[in-house]
Amino acid sequence: MINDFLKYQTQTSPHPLGMEVSHARGSYIYDTNNKAYLDFVAGVSAASLGHQHPRVNNAIIDQLNKYSHVMVYGEYAQHPATEFCRLLAQNLPAKLNKTYLTNSGTEATEGALKLARRVTGRSQLISCFNAYHGNTMGSMSVMGFEERKQIFRPLIPDVDFITFNNEEDLQKITTKTAGIILETIQGGAGFIQPENDFLRKVRERCDEVGAVMILDEIQPGFGRTGKLFGFQNYDIVPDVIIMGKGMGGGMPVGAFTASEEMMDLLSHDPKLGHITTFGGHPVIAAACLATLQELTETDIMAQTLEKEKLFRKLLVHPLIDDVRGRGLMLAAMTKSDDITNRAILRCQEKGLILFWLLFEGKAIRITPPLTISNEEIKEGCGIIIEVLNEILAEQ
What we know:
Layout: H1 2-8, E1 21-25, E2 28-31, E3 36-39, H2 42-45, H3 54-64, H4 79-90, E4 98-102, H5 105-120, E5 124-128, H6 137-141, E6 159-162, E7 177-183, H7 198-209, E8 212-216, E9 240-243, E10 254-258, H8 260-263, H9 282-297, H10 300-314, E11 320-326, E12 329-334, H11 337-349, E13 352-353, E14 363-366, H12 374-394
Parallel strand pairs: 3-13, 5-6, 5-7, 7-8, 8-9
Antiparallel strand pairs: 1-2, 2-3, 4-10, 9-10, 11-12, 12-14
Helix pairs in contact: 3-9, 4-9, 10-12, 11-12
């Protein structure tokens, strides 16, 4: 299978990990030799309830037996999508009450950027250096990492950048600014949290000049930081939130949510202001609804903060300088890119799946399923410490 994978399927990096997957269940992925790998990545924060969660699986099967795709987005009332959007609104601040369902996080970013321009009649967009919001052309335009963008230029115009947590840069948000887009916690940059009420100060500046505040919750969202959405940890309410990844319990999906007043602008002048064929797909929406119900009807989200404490207690080592992040969105920061590379690859050999972050080479990504047990955390952290001890001995 690996030969056909490399020959017929387009690769996104020169050296893919290349595991031949047989099946997955709970916190484990199994290869075709039936070797078990403890999953500390969850498909890059996407398999929020682990692999083959019964509630999600049953919702998918039940919906498949009723109907699959029947009409392009926004024309027919379909129970899974409608019920998901209703339940989402009930768990968000009052002004975040209307949702547009897409197929991925980057599509949600595209829609949010368009919405900011439609609401304000302005063109300037502001993002952050080292930000990542997806990889389509609009999303790439607000990516704050030139090395990944240069070959694809020209991108969309009138985009400026500020430094995350730099209050002085907020003066760049002016009456010419349509919107500012920020990750609630910067992901690719190294799981950097806002400091000194930075998000509140962005909110205040946007209110001063009439700009739209967009928060990217694609990775922090759906329980990963101990709240349904990351912004709920910082006592602010954005104008638009973007979501994806863990939203579908492992199924491909995204969405953006704002006020009814703002979202209704996409239906006229011009009509069809944002369209998609498969957004709100009933089978995917059923998985999203089951995931949201599980998160809101159990204590899974609260458990993430206790599990974070356990990770921090166990991940103490001379080669680890810091553990960044919140909840189960964590990055163990080693002393060098080389140590991180060696640790990730050796841990996979020993049956533990770890991964990299996009722009911070020293970071070891730790974003397991929210359902991971304490015993599994201890097992995985034991492997990490064992590998780091081997690397330390070689120095």
